[in-house]
Specification:
It is a single chain. The chain is of the alpha/beta class. The protein has two domains: 180 residues, Alpha-Beta Barrel (TIM Barrel); 104 residues, no CATH class. It is 29% helix and 15% strand. The chain is built from eight helices and ten strands. The strands form two sheets. The chain has an eight-stranded mixed beta sheet, covered by helices on one side. Helix 3 crosses helix 4 and helix 7 packs across helix 8. The longest helix has 16 residues. The two termini are 34 Å apart. About 5% of the residues have low confidence. The chain binds iron/sulfur cluster (SF4). The site of iron/sulfur cluster (SF4) has 12 residues, from helix 7 and helix 8. The site of iron/sulfur cluster has 12 residues, from helix 7 and helix 8.
């Protein structure tokens, strides 16, 4: 049952992090208008099961007035609200309070602040966390560790335990930027999706183009073309051209089914899944979108 909707309010971000699984950055296109946020909120309300709305990105605080108004509308409709931010705006603890105070009037259930060396500014994250605590927000930090090769790594081609430490998911820019010197294992190990609820999703991400995603760039419909309630009702996991194979045999099955050329090894299941899906972009543009989260501008 769908309980949460995560708005990718914008693909723009102050930073261009190597580990970003959405390929966000200062020059990326795609930002929600308030009108489109309202349309999605209305569809979420119609569904009757959605309890929580997250506003994230990209960096949602880049479009502060629109973000705030979106949160107000969601609050009026009775949703709990969460934010995810890199806290670029928290130039001092005092100033961070100015940014956060207008959110106090809302039913905020979570304020997640990226606080790690992969993001731009640990000082800003610290300022934001202290200000949030002072104001009484339920806040926490998201800390992504750099990927490291573990000492007891499996050899390439062997059935393996995880070979890489850290919390990075190797999809999006992370698949292209952070995998170069990491150990790889045979594709045959990747027989399931380890992270997403592909059968009965509890939350989806919705982007400014209307894409409804189960995982970054893996879509089940477009809610500017078809109401969310119909998308959820009509979603048939076994007949979805990408989720079906992923459920029956993971990224390995996805590659085999469509004859995608297989590399000698992959860092993890997401690394393989992302590369195989990118190879299928042109074939399934409706289900693999938008191209920019695959690091390309068109369905090549
Ligand atoms: S990238 Fe593929 S394997 Fe990884 S969580 Fe997403 S759907 Fe699952």
């Amino acid at each position: 049952m769908l309980k949460g909707i995560h708005f990718l309010l914008t693909y723009k971000c102050t930073y261009e992090c190597d580990h970003c699984f959405l390929y966000c950055g200062p020059h990326e296109k795609g930002t929600f208008t308030l009108k489109n946020v309202e349309a999605v909120l209305e569809q979420a309300g119609d569904l009757g099961t959605v309890k929580t709305i997250y506003l994230e990105g990209g960096e949602p605080f880049l479009f502060y007035p629109m973000m705030l108004e979106s949160a107000r509308r969601a609050d009026e409709m009775g949703f709990k609200i969460g934010f995810v931010t890199n806290a670029y705006w928290a130039t001092s603890e005092e100033d961070a309070e100015l940014w956060l105070k207008p959110l106090l009037e809302l039913n905020i259930s979570d304020l997640s602040i990226s606080d790690d060396e992969l993001h731009g500014s640990p000082d800003a994250a610290g300022n934001a966390l202290r200000a949030a605590k002072k104001l009484g927000f339920a806040s926490g930090s998201i800390c992504i560790e750099k990927p490291v090769t573990l000492a007891n790594q499996s050899e390439s081609g062997q059935k393996g335990e995880p070979v890489v430490g850290g919390d990075v998911l190797f999809k999006g820019r992370a698949a292209d930027k952070l995998t170069e010197n990491l150990p790889r294992i045979s594709y045959k190990n990747f027989k399931e999706c380890p992270h997403e609820e592909l059968v009965s999703p509890g939350r989806v991400h919705v982007d400014p183009y209307g894409n409804v995603m189960l995982c970054q760039g893996l879509c089940i419909g477009n809610l500017f073309q078809k109401p969310l309630s119909d998308i959820m009702k009509d979603y048939d996991h076994s007949n979805h051209p990408i989720c079906g194979p992923l459920l029956s045999g993971g990224p390995a099955r996805l590659a085999e089914k469509y004859g995608v050329e297989i590399e000698s090894g992959y860092v993890d299941a997401c690394h393989m899944c992302f590369l195989v899906r990118r190879a299928l972009l042109k074939r399934f543009p409706q289900f693999l979108a938008p191209p920019q989260v695959y690091g390309t501008t068109e369905n090549e």
